[in-house]
Amino acid sequence: MTIFTLxxxxxxxxxLFCVISGVTGVKVRNWVITFLQYFTGAxxxxxxAVKAVDPLGTAYKMEQYFAxxxxxxxxxxxxxxxxxxxKLSNVSSTVSVVMIVFEIVLGIMLLIGAYRKLTAWAxxxxxxxxxxxxxxxxxxxxxxxxx
Length: 147
Hints:
147 residues
């Protein structure tokens, strides 16, 4: 399955959610925002479910990232946060499960439209985390080894 096919399936699911919202009489102010909300919710549920199949694999990747963060930040003016990463590495299994549950719950909250303000802040927090991870990978060229 390609990224395009996956995106297409998730977009179809988001359109179905929009149609269901319209049919059930849910008040929609902006259909584009509603579509994006459902698209992101479906994406998070799918992504979290894929990670939930192998949470230990996710934990191993996080351990690799934590080790790389420690060595990268140790020689910079961010060296004060470098000692945090060995501690996070020791609890990577717990961090992995918490992150997976957080992603799935956030996706469900987006799909059902629950606690809009809390969901928006949680969404921002998760996006900042993944943006940092992606930016680090891009800027350093670091890619974890296949396990």
